[in-house]
Amino acid sequence: MGSSRPWDLAEDGDELSKRMESFIAKQRSLVGEKTTMLLSVANAWVIGSRQYHHLVSLMIFSFFPTIASILSLTSSLSTSSIVTFFLAFHD
Known about the structure:
Keywords: Membrane, Transmembrane, Transmembrane helix. It is a single chain. By secondary structure, this protein is an all-alpha fold. The longest helix has about 70 residues.
């Protein structure tokens, strides 16, 4: 590669150009892989957050009758009766 003849330098330039093109192609593929990985992580996060919100809403609605009954008892029962009622459902 270190020849002083002009035609050898032209060949060295072609080789360097090919190496640069190869390097650029590899970098583009790495960027593509990183972008794909980032998008898949973002997609998994969105799906996970939707499932989490669905789970939270299910938990709220499944405990809503218990909460509603406790709130309705608040006006008619003493505090000790409410605590007893809550502990009976908690076991």
